[in-house]
Amino acid sequence: MSQLDPFLAAGLFIILAPVVGVLITGLDRILTARMQGRVGPPVLQPLYDIGKLFQKRQVAVWGAQSFF
């Protein structure tokens, strides 16, 4: 059995961990909705939520907020 290069294994982990996390979260939301008698969101809804969060612009009420 051949072993993976440690850098390749780390790279795969960095790429696959968020993808698997998003899929598991999406399936959890669907399962929770079905147990409550609802249809639920699409499986990739957490990914859509992250994209929407990054599109929001930052708002500062006071000028000092941007300093801190």
Features:
single chain; mainly alpha; 68% helix; 3 helices; 68 residues; flat
Structure description:
The protein has one domain (6-67). The protein is built from three helices and no strands. It has helices at residues 6-35, 45-55, 63-67. The N and C termini lie far apart (53 Å).
Structure at a glance:
The chain contains 3 helices and no strands. By secondary structure, the protein is mainly alpha-helical.
Count of β-strands: 0
The whole-number mean of residue pLDDT values reads 88
Number of helices: 3
Strand count, sense and barrel status of the largest sheet are:
none
Q: What's the end-to-end separation, in Å?
A: 53 Å
Indicate the percent of residues in helices: 55-70%
The structural class is mainly alpha
* Shape type: flat
Number of domains: 1
Rg of Cα set:
19 Å
How would you summarize the topology of this molecule?
Elements: H1 6-35, H2 45-55, H3 63-67
